[in-house]
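Box 3.1 A note on notation
Throughout this textbook, protein chains are presented in two layers. The first layer is the amino acid sequence; the second is a token string describing backbone geometry. Keep the layers aligned when reading.
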Amino acid sequence: MMIFMLAAAMTVAMLIATVFGMHQEAQRLKYEPRRIDRFGHRRF
């Protein structure tokens, strides 16, 4: 039973970390100046 509780806790922790990472990446891309070439592709 303890193993299942640890697995559930790790799953929730990884989901929270994933959401936090996606939010950070979205914020970084929002304020980054976008460089778009004439074909509509973003250049990094």
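The mean pLDDT is 85. The chain has one helix and two strands.
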